[in-house]
Amino acid sequence: MTGPLRLYAIQSAAAVRTSMADRANFLWQAGGMFVNDVFMLALWALFFAGFRSVGGWRLPDMALLYGLIMAIVGAAGVFLGGYRDLAASLLKGELDALLTQPRGLIFRLLTRESIASGWGDLVGGLIVLAAFADLGWRDLPLLAIGVAVGLAVYVSASVTFAAMAFWAAGARSFARDLTDFTILFSSNPPSIYHGAAKLVAFTLLPAGFVVVTPVGLIRHPSVAAFALSLGAAGLYTGLAAAAFHLGLRRYRRGQSPTLGGT
Amino acid sequence: MSSAVSVQQLTKRYSFSRAAKGFGGALAPEKVTIEAVCDISFEISAGERVAIIGPNGAGKSTTLKMLCGILEPSAGGARVLGLVPWRERKALAYRIGVVFGQRSQLWGELPARESFALLRRVYDQDAAVFVRRLGELSERFGLAELMDQPVHRLSLGQRMRCEITASLLHGPALLFLDEPTIGLDVTAKAAIRDFIREHARDHGETVLLTSHDTRDIELVCDRVIVVDEGRIVVDQPTDQLRRTFLARKLIILRSQAPRLAIDMPGVVARPSEPHTTVLEVDTRTARIDQVIAEALALGGIDDITIEDPPMEEVVREIYAVARRR
Q1: From-to residues of CATH 3.30.70 in chain B
Q2: In the beta sheet, which residues pair with residue B227?
Q3: pLDDT at A248
């Protein structure tokens, strides 16, 4: 592993240890999220018991979608947990200390925190994928690519939303709301979205690219699906990097509302 | 002696929008520009220990942030260890150590030792060099028993010792300290000051610190730069500043009598509440122990406190003298 990657891995591991320091709190949060996810999936199972199919989607497809979103949100929370309240970190001036050090900013902000409840999502997601999504061993490489693509798009979108804090002090709650909407939009079969809702789901909130595109890649692999997935991951990662660095330029020029004392 | 910091006509302006008066003002905010740092110039030689002091909003932190490379100036220039901080931020970062008194670079839930190990990765430090330096700093700072406790369980003073250690592990040539003793008790402040002064002296580090506490300046620094409203008001050796401006102490006496009358040369009573007498003592004229002895002789003393005048007061006086010149 190269220098920067090793640094981020070590920082992420330290963050995970921090999140587990209070064992009871960790178990409550991780367990609570697991139960919450199982409950939501059970509702969908009851729904499909009555309707069998929604726009061509059956329970295993829904389990694949739901398992993917759980695994993606879980992995983001556990290993890149700083994404969740990144706008608040920027507003509190936490960049200053990192700017006096020679190694990366975005990944250090992301990996310095780990969210305990993410374990509930991650473990729950993997169980759902293994048990209910109708996947075989041959699907594993595509599943791994799907999770990586979804993770890249989801975290990149969150970083882009959080970068608004460089322009507006009130961006904290707005950024979190947009991130939550992305999860919400991602948690439904795509066939229920039409017109403007579909446009939003594939642009402003990249919910479609977080799970729908990976589901398409896993169920119907093709060069086009592969290219679309990688293209979306690349595009949203690039957008996040651009938004963050544009904002950082404002911050360093003193034009940002996040600056502290004089 | 070579120059560690060279600042020429450095200026920093902040612009922000503010709602103008009246209902219409909320819809059409006005743009306001403030000059946090205004046309300042100074040189710091290698190995010098310099304090930048001034009241809140004077421009201390902004100056420090520009010299660390965090902020870009609006005008003017600076070189720190030969580098332009805001253009060569990463290269400079390997050669400076920074402590923000009110922000931690340590993980609260983990032992400081783990944060130190992570910083080794941040600075690409050789493992053997890291172990040697940590051993030296640990011994010097008495960290052996602290390093394995979660940082959030440490006292503020212990935490600050760990913060300073963290900033020194990669062997910086220049140390920036922003309010390093803020919130600490008297003993912890003394330990921090001793350490900074002795470590810098032994290793030839240049130190630039900001503080509200006049004792930080007197006990750590060779030279003081006083800023007010973004401008340098005074730039002189600490000895000279001490003789001129830091010679006053406040003795606060709580007594059973409503007021204590002490008539000594160099002692002036300040307005105060009943049963509290505040004496301003010019230590060039009157000795503290003699003033206290005089007060004790009057009897009925419940409590005695000796304080430095607030920094704002010292700076106001410096500013007033500078304007008269």
Answers
A1: 248-307
A2: B232
A3: 94
pLDDT digits (tens, 9 = 90+) for A214-254: 998 999 999 999 999 999 999 999 999 999 999 999 999 98
Which residue ranges does chain B devote to CATH 3.40.50.300? 3-9+44-240
Looking at CA atoms only, how far is residue A253 from chain B in angstroms?
Answer: 5
- Report how far residue A54's alpha carbon sits from residue B14's, in angstroms, rounded to the nearest whole number: 55
CB contact under 8 Å between B110 and A94, yes or no, is no
Tokens 């909003």 correspond to B57
Residue B130: pLDDT band (50, 70, 90) is very high
Type of residue at B307: E
Q: Which CATH superfamily is domain B3-9+44-240 in?
A: P-loop containing nucleotide triphosphate hydrolases (3.40.50.300)
Nearest to A152 by CA among A68, A231, A224, A236: A236
Task: Give residue for tokens 């009057």.
Answer: B298
pTM of the shown model: 0.82
Local structure of residue A149 (DSSP, 8 states): H
Q: What is the CA radius of gyration of chain A?
A: 19
For the stretch B169-217, pLDDT in tens is 999 999 999 988 888 888 888 888 988 998 898 889 999 999 877 788 8
Candidates B12, B123, B230; nearest CB to A254: B12
Q: Which three-class secondary structure string do you get for A94-162?
A: CHHHHHCCCCCCHHHHHHCCCCCHHHHHHHHHHHHHHHHCCCCHHHHHHHHHHHHHHHHHHHHHHHHHH
Structure confidence at residue B6 (pLDDT): 97
ipTM of the complex: 0.82
Edge to edge, the sheet with strand B30-45 lists B30-45, B3-18, B75-80
Q: Do B93 and A100 touch (CB under 8 A)?
A: yes
CB under 8 Å, gap of 24 or more: what pairs does B233-236 form?
Answer: B233/B54, B233/B315, B233/B318, B233/B319, B233/B322, B234/B318, B234/B322, B235/B42
Mutation for B interface: A16, A91, A101, most B CBs within 10 A: A101
Element (H, E) at B268: strand B267-270
pLDDT in tens, A159-200: 999 999 999 878 888 888 888 888 888 887 777 777 787 777
Was domain B248-307 assigned CATH 3.40.50? Answer: no
- Radius of gyration, CA atoms only, chain B: 23
Contacts of A112 in chain B (CB under 8 A): 107
